[in-house]
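Field log, afternoon session.

UNIT: design team B
ACTIVITY: writing a sequence onto a fixed backbone
BACKBONE:
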């Protein structure tokens, strides 16, 4: 049996290695300028870039994920299929600036340009992943606070100070002399491919609208970043649910653009430092704030990911996204437009980023009886951002009573060993939080952002959500469905839960999983 399992994992490893190799080849094939640079690395940028030094950053490799599927399954992803919502539905390519004059047309502004810019548009999500080459950022032309400060030093700072406002020319791209001074994107392009919709401040649209075309003689940089870099603007950056939608969008953008390694990050916002940056740094290769640069910085390859509001994880709160979680193996054997493994793939990405095992052994003890971890995710008072008073609204008014009752019950449970874990996430590092989620057989909690961590739960984990009458929102039921997890709600008439009801529901769940 062990020999069969080893053979299975060896075949999986070889399969994923080949997929990663193909991704690498496709990336440099679709970015010929970068392929040329890799094989002529001794050549410096043109002499016009005086006072320049190159930042050759080493980007982390992609891990091998059990739920990974190729990001180009079909040339045309079916409209509103699960792959269109959660994977590579960005199938319509629009070239604003082409790197070579291989197909002349109205999209080409100048036949001698050096920079390039294009977007991949999703008809399903009505948003775009965009990327460009030889892109320069002028931090002094971005109006916002510095960002990255300690929270306590910026108490009372307004949100308007933290979100960017771009002057024209805050970003520019090097092109031929004929095009210099022009705006890169037209209003028509923005209205069709970077739609504002209900988003009041669409920072990705505003950034693209600020891009100016400049000649090679003007393209001087104080720093060059050679490795692919994601330019990210965060909004509700201290809320785990909204931050996870940003993580997911950044991950999808990296895969859609075929990056051979995990990209660098630059936060184009002025938000202070938060605990959630631990995961940004773990998942991606490096992190800086736009205002940390002392002068114009040039990116060999910059990627713009859609706002978290535009992901299916957020859109599903108002749209009917009828998708169900399935294993990548099953979908590889039999593709199904109603099923997805992408949320599971993303959760494995987070676990792998923290060096946590992707095949944890649950429900068994080497020396004793079977056991199960039951994680109770708590809601605590916390200070998350400058405008937060440090108080959270109670979704379960007798949370401590319920926890104490579960603790007493689990101690006396005889059918199997039940370990009740006190999920005080506000006192745990992000890695400790993800580990607690991964190790849980059952995750219990009142509606709250901390439950968003279930994206990193293992396939066998079951979710028990205590839902007050005031917070009947589908966030965690949807994530459970999209991951293929069993979801069990307890609906309350108000915000008070009967401990005996919670214990009874938990007892039934444990019984069904062999306890």
């Amino acid at each position: 049996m062990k020999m069969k399992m080893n053979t299975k994992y060896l075949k999986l490893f070889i399969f994923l290695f080949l997929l990663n190799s193909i991704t690498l080849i496709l990336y440099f094939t679709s970015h010929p300028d970068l392929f040329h640079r890799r094989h002529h690395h001794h050549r410096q940028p043109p002499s016009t870039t005086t006072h320049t030094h190159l930042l050759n950053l080493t980007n982390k490799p992609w891990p091998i994920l059990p739920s990974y599927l190729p990001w180009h399954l079909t040339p045309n992803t079916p409209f509103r299929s699960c792959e269109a919502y959660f994977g590579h539905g960005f199938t319509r390519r629009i070239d604003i600036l082409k790197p070579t004059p291989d197909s002349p047309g109205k999209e080409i502004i100048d036949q001698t340009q050096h920079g390039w810019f294009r977007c991949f548009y999703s008809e399903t999500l009505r948003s775009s992943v965009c990327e460009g080459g030889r892109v320069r950022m002028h931090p002094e032309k971005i109006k916002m606070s510095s960002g990255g400060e300690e929270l306590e030093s910026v108490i009372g700072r307004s949100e308007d100070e933290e979100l960017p406002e771009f002057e024209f020319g805050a970003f520019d791209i090097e092109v031929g002399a004929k095009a210099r001074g022009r705006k890169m994107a037209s209003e028509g392009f923005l209205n069709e491919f970077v739609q504002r919709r209900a988003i009041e401040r669409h920072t990705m649209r505003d950034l693209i609208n600020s891009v100016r075309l400049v000649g090679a003689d003007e393209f001087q940089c104080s720093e060059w970043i050679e490795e692919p870099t994601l330019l990210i603007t965060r909004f509700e950056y201290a809320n785990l649910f909204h931050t996870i939608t940003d993580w997911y969008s950044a991950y999808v953008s990296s895969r859609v653009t075929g990056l051979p390694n995990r990209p660098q990050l630059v936060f184009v916002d002025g938000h202070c430092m938060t605990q959630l940056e631990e995961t940004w740094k773990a998942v991606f290769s490096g992190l800086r704030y736009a205002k940390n640069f002392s002068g114009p910085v040039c990116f060999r390859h910059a990627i713009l990911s859609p706002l978290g509001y535009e992901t299916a994880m957020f859109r599903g709160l108002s749209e009917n996204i009828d998708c169900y979680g399935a294993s990548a193996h099953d979908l590889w054997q039999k593709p199904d437009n109603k099923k997805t493994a992408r949320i599971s793939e993303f959760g494995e990405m987070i676990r792998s980023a923290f060096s946590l095992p992707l095949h944890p052994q649950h429900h068994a003890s080497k020396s004793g009886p079977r056991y199960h971890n039951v994680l109770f995710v708590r809601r605590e008072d916390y200070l998350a951002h400058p405008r937060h008073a440090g108080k959270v609204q109670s979704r379960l008014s007798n949370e401590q009573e319920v926890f104490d009752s579960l603790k007493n019950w689990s101690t006396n449970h005889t059918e199997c060993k039940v370990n009740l874990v006190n999920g005080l996430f506000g006192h745990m590092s992000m890695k400790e939080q993800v580990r607690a989620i991964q190790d849980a057989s059952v995750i219990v909690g009142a509606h709250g952002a901390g439950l968003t961590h279930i994206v990193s739960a293992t396939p066998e984990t079951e979710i028990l959500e205590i839902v007050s009458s005031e917070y009947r929102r589908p966030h965690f039921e949807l994530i459970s469905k999209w991951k293929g997890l069993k979801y069990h709600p307890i609906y309350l008439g108000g915000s008070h839960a009967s401990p005996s009801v919670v214990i009874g529901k938990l007892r039934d769940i444990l019984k069904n999983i062999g306890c």
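LOG NOTE: The radius of gyration is 24 Å.
NEXT ACTIVITY: expression trials, pending approval
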